[in-house]
Structures are given as C-alpha cells and as structure tokens.
Amino acid sequence: MTQGQEITPVEFPRPVVADERRGRVRFAVEAGEAERAALARRFSLPGIGRLACSGTLSPGAGGRWRLRARLDAEVTRVCVVSLEPFAARVEEEFEIRFAAPADGDGEAELDIGAEDDEPLPPGGELDVGEIAAQQLSLALDPFPRAPGAAWTDRVEAGKEQPPQPANEQARAAFSSLSRLAGRRGEGSGEA
User: 3-class SS at 5?
Assistant: First the structure.
C-alpha cells in the first residue's frame, strides 16, 4: 500500500479459500445486524432486513474455479413514484468463474481463452461476503417502484402534472429534436 492510500473496510467479510487439495467447498453466509446497516449505508438504502448467500466453490481444469451461489435478501427501497419506503425481496442465482494467473504471482496476464474469468486473488482467498454484497448491488432496480405505484396523467386543480418517467421524457425530448432538425433541414440544403 502506498502512502496516503486508504483501505476501504469490507462491511461483510467472509473469506473462503480456493485450495485444490481441499477440492469443492460449500459455504453459507449471512450478514449480521451491524453488517447489514453498513451495507445499507453503502448502497444508499433505508435498510437491509436480511442478506444471505449460499453455494459452492469448485475447482476446474487449469487452475480455474467456479463459484455458484444463491443470494437471498430483504431490503427497504424508496419508490420513485410515491417517494414512500417499501419492502422488496431479492432472490438471485449467479455464477462467477475465476482463473489463477499463469505464474501464480498475481501479476501475469490471464489466458486469452479465459476472457470471462475473473482473476483469482493471490493465495486463492475469495471474500464471498463481498461477492454477495456486489451481487445485491447489481440486482437492485435503479428505479424501484412499490407494487401498484403508477404514474397518472390526471392533473388535479391547482397542481402540476407529476413528472414523466424517464422513457417518456426521452421520447418527448427526441420528438422535439426531430421537429427542430426537420426545420433546419428545410431550405438549408440538408437532407
């Protein structure tokens, strides 16, 4: 580590070692209350009620490893329509392949045929807690809506129309640009 470089703490550390002598490893991890609170802050969530991950880490040919796991989480989200919190469940199965560097020192390039493989950390230690946290982050809808929440086209007396969803805003913007481009093209010689 260089001077001035900070170490980012891992909120949910659960190391599992990929060791060919041990072979296949089964794991089941669950975040505690303080770990869930720290992850909720990291992901800007009102709360995480549960975060669990279970699966296997299996050796393959040529120093490769395959992690297959199931993520199960209960989170609190904020609805983009009503701005009210609501409970959501995340259930997801995922697979990640890892490959050890050719010379084993963590510095070498990976095999060209292994383009989808992640590099195996030096010593073969994988943090399945951090992997679960990252998978949760990837599984979260960037525009969460509570069940039954919908944009309305009604305009109540004295109130502005609610904002349009992003795709409707984009459609309106591109429609306006198309009309503008059509006007510029008239008489300017542009097709």
Answer: coil
pTM of the predicted structure, to 2 decimals: 0.70
Name residue, tokens 């669950």.
Answer: 30
For the chain, what percent of residues have pLDDT higher than 70?
68
pLDDT for res 170: 57
Tokens of residue 142, six digits: 């960037």
The lowest-confidence range among 93-97, 112-116, 123-127, 182-186 is 182-186
Higher pLDDT pick, 167 / 43: 43
Q: Which residues pair with 125 in a beta bridge?
A: 17
Q: If DSSP codes are grouped into helix, strand and coil, which group holds residue 33? A: helix
Q: In this structure, what token pair is assigned to residue 191?
A: 């097709």
Please, is 118 exposed, middle or buried when counting C-beta atoms within 10 Å of its C-beta (0-12, 13-18, 19+)? middle
Burial 79-110 (b: 16+ CB within 10 A, else e): bbbeeeebebebeeebebebbbbeeeeeeeeb
Which strand (E) or helix (H) includes residue 124? none
**What does DSSP say about strands 85-99 and 118-119: parallel, antiparallel, or unpaired?**
parallel
